[in-house]
Amino acid sequence: MTQKLKYERPHIKKLESEMPTxxxxxxxxxxxxxxxxxxxxxxxxxxGSPLFVISEKTLRETFRSARKAFETxxxxxxxxxxxxxxxxxxxxxxxxxxxxxxxxxxGFEYEKALRNGVPGDKIIFNGPDKTExxxxxxxxxxxxxxxxxxxEFYTIVSLCDRMKEKPRVAIRVNMDTNVYxxxxxxxxxxxNGQAQDILNKIMRSGKMDLVGLHCHIGTFMFSANAYGIAxxxxxxxxxxxxxxxxxxxxxxxxxxxFASQNTLKGSFLPxxxxxxxxxxxxxxxxxxxxxxxxxxxxxxxxxxETGRALIDDAGYLISSVIANKRTSTGKRITVLDVGVNSLxxxxxxxxxxxxxxxxxxxxxxxxLYGPLCMNIDVIREHISLxxxxxxxxxxxxxxxxxxxxxxxxxxxxxxxxxxxxxxxKSYLIRQAEEIDNVIGPERIPEHLSQFDL
Length: 453
Ligand SMILES: *Cc1c(COP(=O)(O)O)cnc(C)c1O
Hints:
Blueprint: E1 25-26, E2 34-35, E3 38-39, H1 40-47, E4 51-55, H2 56-71, E5 77-82, H3 89-97, E6 101-104, H4 107-115, E7 123-125, H5 132-140, E8 144-147, H6 150-163, E9 168-174, E10 188-189, H7 194-205, E11 209-214, H8 224-245, E12 251-253, H9 271-274, H10 278-291, E13 301-304, H11 308-311, E14 315-326, E15 332-336, E16 353-355, E17 362-369, E18 378-385, E19 393-397, H12 403-406, E20 416-420, E21 426-430, H13 435-439
Parallel strand pairs: 4-20, 5-6, 5-13, 6-7, 7-8, 8-9, 9-10, 9-11, 11-12, 12-13, 15-17
Antiparallel strand pairs: 1-17, 2-3, 4-14, 14-15, 14-19, 16-19, 17-18, 20-21
The protein binds pyridoxal-5'-phosphate.
């Protein structure tokens, strides 16, 4: 008797072939030798490698195209720069010069916005962890406090009594926008009535000025339509406040989360071909608001807290080659001087990486590793690149969002950040760290101060 064969589901597997022909792939791209006219070699000579570079030109142009997409479709638009996306002073101030308010998610970021000179009433305070002291400060400065949970509501109630102030508040709403998994851990849920419930509490307390409704439905959202759904749901809440309390809110804030043009790992098409652009998001949001029951003669201000889609393209990371080697099976490895501790987003994106000098005609499938003594330190798993010699440079593209705030100090020091200005000059906006930045805050207990080896 023959045994029944085991069934195995068919599956499609990526072929790990190294070269399309025995001559390898052609290098059909050009080197990137400068950023806005400033040669990469000069930048490295002046500021070292690795080096983050921000293009002020791209930053401002991207901002203006986003603003135009919304302002041509909806009459009242306000951007608020998401500090956590990149909170270096020069970056924030460029957005503030463009007219952006500040959007912060912690006491630290709140203080940073104040020190950047943002007027208190132009700071939006989000996030689940606002301490009583943070809230007191925000109330005293007349900021826009976006309530995340009931505990926060009750803390504000007690501060109102103590401070004899009527703070300006909004609530954060989470909701089903047909995108899963749903982000339902922040704020109050729309579908199950939590949002309506807290709105009733705020209105009945009479202690706060309910000025807005906020949501932040996710990040790197591929669906522009999800924003249309979110805008409709917030408009419905606004209308129910109008009907029930004859109360008009002043703004609807749709948060951030627009996809940048980066390419997510595993996606079939490059991000620039597949991700929605500002026009698509703006169309979905403004159509939903204009088609809602909101009165056309008293439309609320539309606030956007866009982060990554505004700054990703403006950020570059220059890195130098440390060494080349081969894996046990012969695949080329190139080791760079920058690791995943500085380039957090390499876990999600296939960053575009281009050599910064002339190269030969033939490319080869390469893995780009960082310098950390850790197996996870992979900058690009598979990339077709020409041979890069020790000391040669690459330019990693679209790194402006999150890397310069989520970077970790691990076995080495964080690199400098330079801004290339509209005048074509380079400006140091954050020094490379020094060892004193790390050991300065350390304290040694007396009994560990001496040893004898
Ligand atoms: C992080 C965050 C943003 C910015 O999100 P992006 O995905 O970078 O656009 C905006 N609003 C809130 C509340 C956030 O937490």
